[in-house]
Amino acid sequence: MADKETGNVTPSGLSNEDEELRNLSRAECCTILGLPEDADDESIRQRYGALLRQYKRKVDEYGTTYDDLAYYKRITAAYDTVFGFTHDFSDDNPTSPVPYKVRKKWAKFIAWLDQYKLAVFLGAVIIFLAVMFTVQTLNHGKTDIKIKFVGAFAQDPQINLTEQLNEKSEVFGNAQVTFFTVTTSTTLLDASARTGAESFLGQLMAKGALDVILIDKESFDVYVAQNAFLPLDEFYEAYTAAHGGAYLMNVYQYESEPDSRGNVLVKSGIYGIDVTDTTFFEGTGLTWLYDAEKGQEKTMIFCIASKTRNADKAWSFFEELSAAK
User: Fold this and answer.
1) Is the pTM of this model over 0.90?
2) Residue 301's closest CA among 226, 202, 221, 184?
């Protein structure tokens, strides 16, 4: 600290080369600042402020050199001596608006980051994947029901069918609707058809990936023997009993046959119910693609995925479809 009576000063951060700045008299301080030796305190304040602004403009435009820092140390040491202040001269950018302590901590952080950049990168990747997984899990949990159209069906690209079904249904409000379109002209030589088939099989194998499958007759015959659908016998018996015990619509049954080893892969029972005549999809973006000229009938069969986690809600949707006649 400065001693205003003797004129001694010990500013922080000065090197041995700046030893002469440690013992300045007031007259010497005024000379360094370009003032008369008997200048008053107010003149010194104004002069130092003007020199500091001039210094800042120069370093902002051209950058800071060692000579600039030496000049800054010299005029500031003179100012400190007069008013008893102590500046930290270890700062290489003293006119920065960002405090030196903040810049020093930031520099240490950058150095640490550079040293451990691989570990930091891997950590960032892990955090990103964890966040994405969490978001997908939350979104997955919000879905009421997962509906898949399989066969001669498509969605009008200009209309959001999912939004329409969510608004129309009283069973669900946040459905996930997807398509695997197969027509009479589709072949497995078509890359998109192969991809669609692989995706559908993957969904059938995954627990909870699908709930309701609305499928045409040709596609139903292919997948029913692959244990793709949940047996509907108990659901349908309760449904018919509630409506006077009569079968109200066409059902699709499967008669199991043992394989060469006598094993039964798919038990006999009802696996689909015809909902072709439902009016539920009228006025929506659902498009029928059956080809009557090639002998393909207009059919839509309601099935529940064998690995559904939502069988009761899926059946409630069937009741909604069957009531729309």
Assistant:
1) no
2) 221
